[in-house]
Write a structure and sequence with these properties.
GO molecular function, one term: alkanesulfonate monooxygenase activity
Strand content: 15-25%
Shape: globular
Number of helices: 11
GO biological process, one term: alkanesulfonate catabolic process
CATH architecture: Alpha-Beta Barrel
Radius of gyration: 18 Å
Keywords: Flavoprotein, FMN, Monooxygenase, Oxidoreductase
CATH class: Alpha Beta
Number of strands: 8
Organism: Mycolicibacterium aromaticivorans JS19b1 = JCM 16368
Helix content: 40-55%
Protein name: Oxidoreductase
Number of domains: 1
Largest sheet: 8 strands, parallel, barrel
Distance between the termini: 11 Å
CATH topology: TIM Barrel
Structural class: alpha/beta
Length: about 280
């Protein structure tokens, strides 16, 4: 199983200067990939721009959006951005994509929150065409794997027919995640697809002393504060020790997941070293 680490782009007030150094340290320490979390109305850094900075600072790491809230963006413009990033980074990009659950993000850009799933379906056609030889958006065709987040029937349809797999959420509900992964694999076979779908998981983490752990939990409480019950689940589930991190790796490896992404909840660069010491 491949192990990636998140950039702290989603941590409130994060300094843009940390992104490049964080990415370089992650590559030096042997992580397989870097990932971002997407959000609009929050004092964070843009996902695609953060990954672009990380791409320029590294040469081998995979670049993963986990997940990108595509309906918030113009489909041709987003296809252009992602196609350009894939081309400049040497086809290291994997796009985890979803619709999110914050209506205020959609209100801010004048997009109908109730139609976000249908909008995503329309965007997929535009993006796939834009990345093709006839699309007219990229200097040359690019292949960008698309993985879908969520637990709906629409997620299964997208992941198994037009996509390349599924992205599980950050809560470690191993039983239901494993069951949904099996539904994705079964749907993939039923659609007559070759090979196997990619199955990713993620966890939130903060490693270090009690103050670091407290700050990590405070971040999750704020970030998911629009859903207090869900925020509490994330706070309680946060990986906060080396043993806990290793247990997550073992559990997802045993379940047959292909990649595990550790999202930081504090922006201190020593988190890269502490996680590497624990799981690599």
């Amino acid at each position: 199983m491949r192990i990636g680490i998140g950039l702290p782009n989603h941590v409130a007030g994060v300094s843009g200067a940390v992104i490049g150094s964080w990415a370089r340290r992650a590559e030096e320490r042997g992580f397989e990939s870097l990932t971002t979390i997407d959000r609009l109305l929050y004092p964070s850094l843009d996902s695609v721009i953060s990954l672009s900075v990380a791409a320029g600072a590294t040469s081998t790491l995979g670049l993963v959006t986990n997940v990108l809230l595509a309906p918030l963006y113009s489909a041709p413009a987003l296809a252009k951005q992602l196609g350009s990033l894939a081309a400049c980074a040497g086809d290291r990009l994997t796009v985890g994509i979803g619709v999110g659950s914050r209506a205020d993000d959609y209100d801010a850009v004048g997009v109908d929150f109730a139609r976000r799933g249908r909008i995503l379906d329309e965007q997929l056609v535009t993006m796939r065409h834009g990345w093709s030889a006839d699309g007219g958006l990229c200097p040359a065709p690019v292949q960008i794997p698309l993985l879908f987040g969520g637990r709906s029937e629409a997620t299964i349809r997208r992941a198994t027919t037009v996509g390349d797999g599924w992205v599980a959420g950050a809560l470690r509900d191993f039983g239901s995640q494993s069951a949904f992964a099996e539904r994705i694999r079964a749907g993939w076979r039923a659609a007559g697809r070759q090979g196997n779908p990619q199955i990713h998981a993620s966890v939130n983490f903060a490693l270090g002393n009690g103050d670091v752990v407290r700050r990590g939990r405070d971040h999750l409480a704020r970030y998911y504060g629009f859903k207090p019950d869900y925020a509490k689940l994330n706070v309680d589930d946060m990986v906060h020790s080396a043993d806990d991190a290793r247990a997550a790796v073992r559990a997802y490896g045993d379940l047959g997941f292909d990649r595990l992404l550790f999202h930081p909840t504090v922006a201190s660069i020593d988190q890269v070293d502490l996680l590497a010491d624990a799981v690599l």
